[in-house]
Every structure is written in C-alpha cells, then in structure tokens.
Amino acid sequence: MIGATLGLYLSSRFFRMIAAVFATIFSLVYVIDFVELLRRTGNIPGVAASSVAYLSFLRTPVVSEQVLPFCVLFGSMAVFLNLTRKLELLVARAAGVSVWQFLGPPILIAVLIGIASVTLLNPVSAVMKQEADKLELTIFGNDGSNTAKAGLWTRQRSIDGESILQAEKTSNNNNVLIGVTAYVYDRSGQFQARVNAARATLQPGFWRLDDAKVSEPGEDSRVFKTYLLATDLLLGQVTEGSMSAESVPFWDLPALRAETELAGLDASGYRLQFQTLLARPLLLVAMTLIAAAFSLRFFRFGGIGKFIGGGVSAGFVLYVATKFVGDLGGSGLLSPPVAAWSPAVVGSMLGALALLNQEDG
Question: How many CB atoms lie within 10 A of CB 121?
C-alpha cells in the first residue's frame, strides 16, 4: 500500500492546485459579471457601484459551482504533469508504487471535494442566488429581471378541486401575478368558472385576486373587488415550483419535491437536480481518471501537447454529455437517476479503461 507520507504529500498537492484553479475561475467569473452588470446599470440612476459589486458576488458561486468539474480536471492534469516532469512519479514507480496506488489520494480528494460542494457549497450558493434574484428585481424591475415571464401557466390543487392559472407577467419571485385568468374545476373535474383578475397575490392557503370578474356556465358574470381561490401552493412554488432547481439548497430538495408533487405540479426538475448533486462526487472522480489517462506520459516520449489537448477535449465532451443527458432527463425521455448517474459512471469506466490499457496493457 502507498505510504502515509506519500499519500499526504499527493493529497495536499492535488487539493491546493484544485483550490487555486477554482479561486482563479471564481475571480474571473466575478470580474466578467461585474463588468457586464456595470454596463447594464449604466443608464439606471441611483444604482451604486457597491450594490452592483454585491450583486455580482451573489451571482458568482452558482456559476463557479457549475464549472467545478473543470477545476478538478485542470488541477489534476497540472499536478500529474508537474509530478511527471520532475520525475517524482518515476521514483514512486521505481519504489514499487503502481499507478492505482498513487491515484488513491487524488481520487479521495475528488470525492471529498464533491461531497463538500454538495453539502456545503450548493446550499450557500443557492441561498445567495435567491438573494441575487431579489436584488436584481429591485435594481432592474420586472423588465430586467429573469423572474418576469410572459404567458405564464401553472396548475394547482386545493381542497375544492383543481384550477389552471394563466398570467401575463409575474413579480416577487412569481408570488404576484399580473393579468390573471383562472379556470376553476371541482373535485370531479367539472368546469366551474373562469375568473379574470387584474392581479393575484399568493397567500398561505389561497390566492387573493383583485378586481375579479367571475363567469360561470349559465350565469351572468359577477364582479368582485376581492376573490379568494384556495390553493395548496406554497410561496415560491408557482410554475413547476417557480423557483428553479438550481436555486434550491440540496437539503431542501426532497421536501420541496414532495410538496410540489402534492400540489399537482411536475417535480421532475427537483428530482433530476437531487440525483445530479448526488452523482457529483463520482463525476469528479471521472474527471480525475481522465486527467490521469492523458497526463502520465513521460516527457521524454514527446507529444505532451497532444495529450493535454486530448485530456481537455475528453473532459469537455464528458461535461457536454452530462448536460445533454440532463436535458433528456428534464424533458422526461430519461428517468432522473439514469440521466444524472450515467455520464459519471460511463466517464469513470472509460477513464479506468484508458489507464488499464496504458499502464497494464
């Protein structure tokens, strides 16, 4: 087995390099986003640069979390290449340490980083994204906010039956609907009424519709200053949960998924996000194996540039495949567990196969 001293040495090298790459990408994303937000707020009076800087800081962790696999890939390749260039791995091989033994510490670091990113980084970045959405709504209003949607539709359940709501615009994290039309059905699925309202506000257990016009089959239309429509939706659950799955902390995903399904909405996005986060440590392991497969060639053999390009390309293909399969899972063509785990499993198997062929074949 690999010695404790060598194991700690390799672990510290990999952790420091991956952390350095992550910090670099985090800073780069922050600067680019800050400059872009300064451009967007240039014509908005009363917006201080400090507010823009804070908004950019809140938005950056979500983006950095998405590129974490590349941080592991680039960091692992840099360490492997450095160890190979200095002949440290050659000495380890001469001492009887196989490639599978000195891959143990990097794989362990990748697993620990994956677990930490899921249990710690993801909840923090999700909360920061929610705060960023609120601050962005305050600065830009409905026209500049991503939460303002046109032609929004949502279905809900309540103790009285089901209803379908359509709105022209939304605000306040989709808890306020503008230009609302509600189609109300009883428990047996029979159409009861159509309600047109200028505004609907989600309250605990009901929608409050202002200036509502109620039309029932065979009856004259009636106008109400305030009309209450029962609902099982919670704040932030409008339109398939309204809150994007990326904005939900990992620990809250199971409960929110259950509540969304109870409300009669599609919770596949939450299921897919939960499984994707669970599969992240294995995805980082796959990136580490790919980095090793393309970075352990001795420098005296030449062709290092081609191997580095091949490793980057392989990691990029795996990342694109992860997003593509995730989209298939989001559209219902694949089950969430299959969509979330298959790229990581296949990537790990291909990386291990390449190493087996290169080292033992």
Answer: 18
Cβ atoms of 267 and 49 closer than 8 Å = no
Element (H, E) at 171: strand 161-171
Q: How many CA atoms lie within 13 A of 253 on its CB side?
A: 24
Six token digits for residue 141: 């209003």
Cα–Cα distance list, 2 to 10, 127, 298 (Å)? 11, 41, 21
Distance of CA 242 to the CA centre of its chain: 15
Calpha distance 341→322 (Å, rounded): 9
What would the DSSP string read from start to end of 227-250? EEEE--PPTT-TTTTSS-GGGS-G
**CA dist., res. 326 & res. 343, Å (int):** 9
Short-list 181, 239, 175, CA closest to 206: 175
CA distance 315 to 113: 18
* Residue 266 token pair: 């599609």
Q: How many CB atoms lie within 10 A of CB 319?
A: 19
pLDDT in tens, 200-233: 998 888 899 999 999 888 888 899 999 998 888 7
CA atoms within 13 Å, Cβ hemisphere of 107? 15
Say if residues 148 and 125 touch (Cβ distance below 8 Å).
no
Q: pTM of the entire structure?
A: 0.74
Number of helical (H) and strand (E) elements in the chain, helices listed first: 12, 6
Q: How far apart are the C-alpha atoms of 118 and 100, rounded to whole Å? A: 26
CB–CB of 185/161 below 8 Å? Answer: yes
Estimate the share of the chain in helix, then strand, then coil, as percent rounded to the nearest 5.
Answer: 60, 15, 20
What are 271-318's pLDDT values in tens digits? Answer: 899 999 999 999 999 999 998 888 776 555 556 677 677 778 888 888
CA–CA gap between residue 15 and residue 10 (Å, rounded): 9
Q: Interhelix angle for 336-355 vs 280-293, to 10°?
A: 20
Encode pLDDT of 122-146 as tens digits. Answer: 999 988 988 887 788 777 764 444 4
Tracing tokens 């201080």 back to the chain, one arrives at: 48
